[in-house]
Target: sparc
Amino acid sequence: MRVWIFFLLCLAGKALAAPQEALPDETEVIEDPTTEEPVGANPVQVEVGEFEEPTEDVEEIVAENPCQNHHCKHGKVCEVDDNNSPMCVCQDPSSCPATAGVFEKVCGTDNKTYDSSCHFFATKCTLEGTKKGHKLHLDYIGPCKFIPACLDTELTEFPLRMRDWLKNVLITLYERDEDNNLLTEKQKLKVKKIHENEKRLEAGDHTVELLARDFEKNYNMYIFPVHWQFGQLDQHPIDGYLSHTELAPLRAPLIPMEHCTTRFFEACDLDNDKYIALEEWASCFGIKEHLKVLRALPLLNDHTAVVFSVLQREIGCGRLFPRGTRGWPCFCDSAILP
Model:
């Protein structure tokens, strides 16, 4: 009996040890662990992470600078107080950027030359609340120099030249307005009438007699240019009055070249209230129409203001007036502006 049991065990062991032959149609399948599908999941309907618990992205919170949108006037800078609130304090003149040349210098009404407008306004701020600070204003661009007195005859000529100059500035803007961003549509329509008028006096070195005669014959051509300049300056605030500060962008560059500028604008202030009203401005240029034009006057954008500033220099360099025209600014011959 034991012999038979031993014999059967030997046969079984031999059978288990024998090599197994693969089925003829069976191929070995190697599974890619990266594409392993979850058990019982439909790969078309389930996306990775669809049923995972949502997690919040933790972003680094950067504290907003309180001074970022806080505006301070010229001569002041923004600082944060103990309560993290913005406040304007006087700028230290020594913190102003270094100047590049004499053209950046300005002259104050105290007849003192400052390295730049930044240095001037910072100094004026430190005098805030004092009698000296109240009287101190930016007089003109460029180093202080001797400016001769304006004679009565010269004062009479000033508005004649300036009227014609303003008219030619607008015409030049109209001719260069290829991208329709220098003048508004209403402004362009007004200037177009002047530009296409055959009676228009072309830019040039005209005598005072010719300018006066043209103003009488073509009076309507000068109305809009005069009011346009007023609207250009009346911005802070828009109230129909020009303060000393609002007048500065026009006045400051002209004084070194046109010595009658100060006396002219002083004469415009008929009631001596330190402001030039629209009626006073119009009267200085011999214009009767005023209130109706002001209400319809579109505001100019910053880009136009920059272009206008450039045109001021170009006009003085002989593009609209001959170089060195008597009594009219010639910016390219001066070290006042770049």
Q: What stands out?
A: The radius of gyration is 40 Å.
